[in-house]
């Protein structure tokens, strides 16, 4: 996603997700509860969980995931260095494609600062 406007992608995805939530309200409600429970602090804090989600987004090659989870990790106080280490783990697990999406994830983090 060269020269990405990550805020525009977030807005576009939010709009599309709102339409999907209207089309399937029960499933969306369940997914929302799952998301809240998954990120809620427990043994792992919410920042760590968002970094894990970002790593998965990188390995899954999901632009929307990069945008949402880099932004959320930043909101939970993740530093650029933590993002870079997260990218390193994703590259280890996902190889070359994760290197490309890792660069995208770092761009998101930097752009949303």
TrEMBL record:
Annotated Gene3D superfamilies: AhpD-like
Top-level taxon: Bacteria
Domain Carboxymuconolactone decarboxylase-like: 25-106
A Pfam family reported for this protein in Swiss-Prot or TrEMBL: CMD
Protein name: Carboxymuconolactone decarboxylase family protein
Organism annotation: Hoeflea algicola
């Amino acid at each position: 996603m060269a020269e990405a406007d990550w805020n525009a992608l977030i807005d576009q995805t939010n709009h599309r997700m709102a339409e999907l939530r209207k089309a399937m309200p029960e499933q969306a409600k369940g997914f929302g509860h799952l998301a809240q429970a998954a990120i809620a602090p427990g043994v792992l804090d919410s920042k760590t969980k968002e970094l894990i989600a970002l790593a998965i987004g990188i390995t899954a090659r999901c632009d929307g995931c990069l945008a949402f989870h880099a932004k959320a990790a930043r909101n939970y106080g993740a530093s650029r260095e933590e993002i870079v280490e997260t990218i390193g783990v994703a590259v280890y697990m996902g190889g070359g494609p994760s290197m490309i999406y890792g660069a995208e994830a770092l761009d998101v983090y930097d752009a949303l600062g």
